[in-house]
Fold each of these.
Amino acid sequence: METEELIFYQIYPRSFCDSNGDGIGDIRGIISKMDYLKALGINAVWLSPCFPSPNKDNGYDVSDYCAISPELGTMQDFEQMLAMFHKNGIKLILDFVANHTSTEHEWFQQSRSAKDNPYRNYYIWRKQPPNDWKSLFGGSAWEYDETTGEYYLHSFAKEQADLNYENPSVRKEMQNVIDFWAEKGVDGFRCDVLDMIAKDFIKHKNGNGTRLHEYIRELFGRKKTSRLFTVGECWGSSAKNVALFCAPERRELTAVFNFEHLCLQNDRFSPRKPKLRTVCQRMAKWQKLMQKNGLLPTLFLENHDQPRSVSRFGDDKKYRYESATALGALVLLHRGIPFLYQGEEIGMTNSHHKTIEDFDDIETRNYYFEKKDKMHQDVLLRNVNAGTRDNARRAIAWTEENVATYLPAYSEKERVNVHKDLQAEKSVYGFYQKLIALRRNAACFTRGEYRLIALKNYYRFERRFQGETYQIIVCFAKPCRLPKLKGELVLNNYKTIGSRLKPYQVLVYKKPSGE
Ligand code: TEU
Ligand code: CA
């Protein structure tokens, strides 16, 4: 399968499907939903961390890179799941949490025990904090450890100690992790905050350091890794340096996640609702830039760190179906590699909760307790509900039953659940199936070039390949004049076409050949 034919679905295992009633999603739960995934039409899965973890950051604090978290299942369960994905023509990539380990990892336990321990330089220790770097979860990025009276660096929680990639032993250990899973048949990796593995203390940079590309090539530029699909989470990637990560001759990555189209407010908890037009403008910009460089962009509006896109960019009340399907068209009909996130295919919305006790995410709780004496409680909870990563982590409601998990259930599960959506005349899942079928059956969408036509009251673009052309129109929140359209109507998320485009209406036309 060519890279441009891949259509990813991200699974956050703790919230996807719980098979044994302990309230935690698990691997056997994923196995039980194989037909659901196959019927949707996706052909690749990104599995968020499934390794042993104290779950301070829900698996992104790994305490053993080459094992399966007991709460999620056994290595046999994992191997059965992998075999079933492959039997169903679905590739599986794992989450490679490269930048840091849990402080409960054996390497860190050894490292902290003594200054002359062989593992000491697996991490970054200093007598005093050498700079004022902050943790992305609040507070200083330097934590004092009294065992040896020194400070260690943690870019995220203090329970997530940054690895020291200047140490060749660390790079060798991480190569071994990649090889362990590749030898099991895994098809690749999503690389967590990959651009942070290279620090630069001279240039005061906690990421994108001078040796970054050297480290990435050491990890993924080897003969035995050449078959792997690799996508780096690179927050700092710009159009210029994406080519430095993804140009084939550089033997680094297949693709990167760039977030410019989602970074639309100064911080994740500001309740300002970005405009869908702005998202489309940013996506159009990246389509042109990446096409010019001959590179494939990643296409996504959600993941396990993002609020639900239908609440953020659409209308999750009056036009939930229409806006969810419009957003699906943006992810699935552009040029690039689509990444859907669990629940996006049924138009899951943000969840609404009245107390901080209903939230688990460390970044959210740190924000709440830092602000709670400085802001009105109602305003603070409104911000928390809008921006929390827990919006993506409430258990998928397969039916209306209260699916208790490590998090209080999704507040809208009576209104939005899989069972109800699959029965609905206006089924989001049903429209995603059509979008995916169109993408898989018409070479325009995998091989075709992108051309922007209009981006004012609606977004209109074309995909063209070998004389075949499809036009895609996405209306924003306000109805507007219907542009003159020619050719065969292929998709419409409304029953009819009136004299004006309706809110969030999606129209796909196949233009007469040769036009
Ligand atoms: O996320 C990196 C990351 O920067 C996000 O957490 C982001 O900074 C934050 O949510 C913005 O408000 C990756 C993983 O996707 C995330 O789940 C982990 O918490 C983080 O790294 C640490 O591993
Ligand atoms: Ca379970």
Note: The longest strand covers residues 458-465.
Amino acid sequence: MKFKPANKIQDLQYFGEFGGVNPSISDSSTYTFLSAKTMFDTFEGNADGCYLYSRHTSPSNLYLGEALAEMEGTETANVAGSGMGAITPVLLQLCGAGDHIVSSRTIYGGTYAFLKNFTPKLNINTTFVDITKLDVVENAITENTKVLYCESVSNPLLEVADIKGLAALAKKHNLKLVVDNTFSPLSIAPAQLGADVVVHSLTKFINGSSDTVGGVVCGTQQFIDDLRNVNDGACMLLGSTMDSLRASSILKNMRTLHIRMKQHSMNAMYLAEKFEADGLKTVYPGLASHPSHELFTSMMNEEYGYGGMLTIDVGSLTKANELMELMQNKNLGYLAVSLGFYKTLFSAPGSSTSSEIPEDEQEQMGLTDGLIRFSIGLDNDIERTYEVMKDCMKQVGVL
Ligand code: PLP
């Protein structure tokens, strides 16, 4: 049967104390026990339904985790204090000294910096590859490789990973395929295509209101139990826990994710088609000109579209800055990093979210100075938005 992630979120039923339609928020860092034995059993992970201490887990975090696991179709999930707070423990849980990772070279700058500069201190080394070339990926695998890492749609170049192909490689070489699905929630469901672990920055589309950071790891019960193990679990011991109040507010926002993603995608598709027709160098997975358009189409849950992210290249950083400042002045959106907000957000990744990547490597991967990354908002009147954007583009001379 077709995987229907929004139905699965909709069908969850939680009640609060006193019959509240939202689950009660567990506003406690610690929990009492009537018997010392149950406390011991809970600490050892052998007393289901009991809570000990909110860094381990809390009812509010479990509710949110369950909704995210339903969305990705995994056995369970563990929420974290940020996207990086989800990604880094996963990699440290799966790899130890001497191990090797094969990663896409176009990934979020923070993840890139972690793999390039931080994990080598622990003797975990990474080979960065063009993830769209399965033969190149396979050639980079060594006897020490433990993990294949990619983003379903990459930040900021919007390269699309062939998740089924990568999952087959992972299986063949006994590796874990870890996929960051931050850019394409609902549209793509990596675990359904064979990914072992799916991570998200909840900060973006899933929460959708740019009021918090958050992250999640979706995977098997065994893997999530390992991450939460009190003796050697990376989530447990590195301590990137989400606060219960936040978990509760993200859960409420998540219930409208399906409506928001449809609107983000519809607006982004409209603008991408217009920009391309105007002769701008436009990258959007929904355009037939995108090198992985067919691949995205073959993987997607159609009703959510090709997502809210697009890029244009206006030739130089100076022009990019001029255009972004003007668009902000015209109230078309904000010159800001991050994504998934109701307003359009735009930034030049080379000098912001991907600035951790050295310039020569940026050049190699096609990350140019004039690239503007747009997270297209929920505008009700996208035709009007386009007309004003076009005027801005004419004014700064990119059209
Ligand atoms: N993954 C992707 C694709 C991102 O774009 C980001 C942040 O921009 C992250 C992970 C990190 O998430 P957070 O900022 O919530 O730690």
Note: The pocket of pyridoxal-5'-phosphate is lined by residues 82-84, 108, 110-111, 151, 155, 180, 182-183, 201, 203, 213, 215, 353 (CB under 6 Å).
Amino acid sequence: MLQISNLHAQLEEQKILNGINLTVNPGEIHVILGPNGSGKSTLGRVILGDDKYQVPEGEIKFNGSDFTDLEPSERAQAGYFLSFQSPPEIDGVSVREFLFAAKKASDPAFSSSYKFKKGLKETFTDLRLPEDFTERETNLGFSGGERKKAEVAAMLTLDPQLAFLDEIDSGVDIDTIREIGSQLRTFTEDKTKSLIIVSHSDKLLQEITPTHVHVFLDGKVIETGGHELVEKIQAEGFDGYKPKVKGFEVI
Ligand code: ADP
Ligand code: MG
């Protein structure tokens, strides 16, 4: 589904991604673990085609076609979804209006606003949010957990093939993590859809079963394995992966 080869990205002179290789097949759940500032969110945005970042080298293919020259909206239409690490507030635009506009943009054949409204209310109820949340201004006054649930609702509404969920579990209580986990299990149960999940905690990763775990450092995948890597990092942190520095000398 997604094939990333030797991907480099930078912001003016600052190199952020330094040769990422990542392949995601249908039904796989990939987890990215990495310290703050290692480039995890940048990877999600570069896959989407955020033009703030320059891509001097590398290739992103989605279902066999090259993403390089596609606009973010075309990448979304192709089936890629990126959640916000920090969901923004949108004054004067309800969640329903925002997601309806996004749904129409990602699927031009979609038109029924009645069916949409009904489906969205059900999605919110499944996430244990009051159904009148759909009429509230997007993220305005939402708690941290409510914002993250609204991101999950956006994913379920847009129904992508591949969702990159950026710290969807940060600042979220344990019951909400379980509810999000249950929605993600349903989303992936027929093994046609895939997830890339960036996380700093093992709680959500106990709710779903990652097929691949990647350790990210300085814009590179430095180790790939299974769930045992989550346990290792929860116990030891990332220090073991960093170059050992003594004085000014790298040993
Ligand atoms: P992570 O998600 O792993 O914490 P990011 O991808 O957000 O890391 O950021 C990687 C590095 O790139 C950081 O040093 C960050 O400050 C920098 N960076 C990323 N995007 C921007 C931006 N839009 N403006 C300035 N610096 C950025
Ligand atoms: Mg980030």
Note: Residues 27 and 188 are 6 Å apart (CA to CA).
